[in-house]
Amino acid sequence: MTVADEISSTPAIQRLVAALACNDVEQMLLGALLNFPTAYSKALGRVDADDFFDPVHARLFAGIAERRGAGRMADAALMADMARALDGELRDHGGGIAYLAQVVSAACPPMAVPDYAAKVRDAARRRRLMDAGLTAMVAAVEGEDVNDTISATISAAESLIDGGGSRSRLEVLRAVVAGMERPAAVYATGLPKLDVAMGGGLEAGRVYAFAGKGKSGKSLLAGTISANLNRVGIPHAYIALEMGAQEIEMRSMARDLGVNSLSLRGNVPTGLVSRAGRYAADTPDHVRYVDLPGGTANRLRSEILTAKHRHGCIGVILDYWQLVGGRDRAVTEEEHLRRVAEWLAAAAKRLGIWVLVLAQLADDGEATAVSRTGLTRNADQIFFIRGDQDGNTRWMEMRASRFTPTADVGSRDRPAFVIEGPGPHFRDLSSLSSATF
Q1: Are residues 173 and 237 in the same domain?
Q2: Which domain holds residue 45?
Q3: At what angle do helices 146-162 and 333-351 cross, to 10 degrees?
Q4: Distance between CA 364 and CA 371 in Å, rounded?
């Protein structure tokens, strides 16, 4: 007997598997699909045949889906077909065709179909997660390389988020219909002109890249957007590979207190310390900071998964992309960063989060080779931050967009943003009166 067989056959594991069977829920869901013409559309995109624990239930659902996909109803004719196809298996359930009648009589109300479909899907994902955990246990016991085991476990966990594997055209269409019922939320950055160019703001499943030369205000932009999101209660992670969390928050505190950030360093007056203390006690708390100088790609993946699943973050800010380390000696920097960008794009879709990535431009203001081959291929939108380094106005050149018209945000003659104090921070010029200039 292998270690895997030994572990999976233990009474404790068998009890856990039985607890995730949810046969009654499967019966009630299938009963509704067989009873009510409107029920099937409510299950679209929420459950698939391989989510059912009972093989007969899986065959029944597949038969219903096939018939409905052909434009026919799930009716007595289907039940007769299924009874013939599943004759032996139904007898094992006790009663043969009578079991189908039992399923029909157990139907849940049509309005409850989405909830029951979600329960079946959830139980299936938990069983798959258990399998992934057992696989990790076996790898640990049998002396596999720990880093390889951890990486494989993370990959397995990621695949569970959307089921992994290929999907048929019908499955894709089901997901499209379900998406129409539950449109993705879009979160405003707090910079109105930028939001317009982005199609409303930050949307789950998308990667937004903002590239600029050194000292162009990349971290200021990210800090401003983060503070704006925090102010309206949007939970997100800020992964800082360069500037630390304390410096980022010191700028936000200075902005909100109306003081120069330099006044918060060194010998700070007692009155200002008191104000800062009250601010710290009362300010919203919706940012999870990860100070990650020298952080590797594996550590980045772990922190993003933790931010999503443990802390409920719906987005991630990465400051900045070219600082992600952990490059294998046999891999070029370009290939390493391309892989990081590819993973970020995949994670955004699998986890249902948005990712805002900062990147460094070359001194001539153009993308480097790693930027062109990595972010250009994987980001949904790419903006270049433009403006005179010694000046305080900025505009953005949209280099690419997969889902909106390509349109710059301002121009050299009509900049869209100003870097102003206290803070400092980015401010949309449309929110300022003409007297400000």
Answers
A1: no
A2: 3-181
A3: 40
A4: 14
